[in-house]
Amino acid sequence: MTLGILASGNLGFKVLEQLITSWEINFVMTDKKSEGIISLCKDNNVALFEGNPRKGACANFISDKSIDVLISVNYLFIIEKELIELPKTLAFNIHGSLLPKYRGRTPHVWAIINNERETGITAHLIDEGCDTGAILEQQVIEINKNETGATLLGKYENSYLPIIENVLTKVESNSLRYLYQDESKATYFGKRTPEDGQINWNWQKERIRNWVRAQAAPYPGAFSIYKDQKIIIDEISYTDYGFSCEEPNGKVLSINPILVKTPNGVVEIKKVRNRNTNLKLNSIL
Fold it and tell me: Both 84 and 150 in a single domain?
């Protein structure tokens, strides 16, 4: 069985690195910044397309390619009809949520922000919608109370390959079953940018903490502006100190420890950084 792989980033690299040792890979498509994937393909003499494949850009590349299955892992680009219809058997994507919930971008970050207790991984058919294709496999993953976006993604890394291989094994044995998504249960979350990370100190303290841990390092981070400086906050905790004070939300109540007022209590800022460098906020305060 021959495969075509669409992959980006470190997650895509780790999956490809394992697949390339066990399966026949006819070609790989990736973005120009995924250097690990590019090097891996060159080292293994795998045909490679770099860049956005849309609007016919990959037409010449795929014109002589024949594959049984197309797999998308963390791929940055929208997959158009000419690619979806290329494989003889099926095209499927690995998505980081329990579809139909959390369609769209960075679903693991949104799951933490929304205080979910579990999320998961879904293998689903690729169609021309956004994460709307029939479900092939799912795995539930627990979100613990101190989970960050990065630690949750680490759990994904250990689960992607087994799910992919389960699907491929079922393709080989002709035992694959399709579960069509219930549109009434679908939720969608859009692309996030670093500018979207600003903390609103009028939020409840629980949401603020979820907001912080979901975006903690090495992600761009949740942030607040203080004395014209962007302070990225990577860790906070709850404290009973100053709960009944009448200061406005966002007011710094103490420097050592650093305590900030919220509508339903006080939080302690434990770890901060500025432009990827850890710093001591006390010096700014």
Answer: yes
Question: CATH number, domain at 104?
Answer: 3.40.50.170
State which of 140, 170, 189 marks the end of a domain.
Answer: 189
- Looking at residue 33, its amino acid is K
Tens digit of each residue's pLDDT (9 = 90 or more) over 236-254: 999 987 666 788 999 999 8
How many of the other CB atoms lie within 10 Å of CB of 26?
Answer: 18
| Domain closes at, from 168, 189, 210 | 189
Cβ neighbour number for residue 191 with a 10 Å cutoff: 8
Kind and range of the H or E run holding 12? helix 9-19
CA nearest 223: which of 245, 253, 193?
193
CATH code of the domain in which 204 resides: 3.10.25.10
What residues have CB less than 8 Å from 110, skipping those under 6 apart? 102, 189, 214
What Å distances lie between residue 129 and 74, 80, 95, 240, CA to CA? 16, 10, 13, 48
User: If the chain, 285 residues long, is cut into consecutive pieces of 10 residues, what is the mean pLDDT of each piece?
Assistant: 97 96 97 98 97 91 96 95 96 98 96 97 96 98 97 94 97 97 96 88 97 95 90 93 79 91 94 70 58
Determine the structural domain holding residue 209 and report its residue range.
194-284
* Nearby residues of 124 by Cβ (< 8 Å), 6 or more positions away: 92, 93, 95, 99, 131, 133, 134, 135, 136, 181
- 182 with 273, same domain: the answer is no
Count of domains in the chain?
Answer: 2
Residues 152 and 227 in one domain: no
Q: What is the pLDDT of residue 243?
A: 64
Q: What span, in angstroms and rounded, lies between the C-alpha atoms of 222 and 219? A: 9
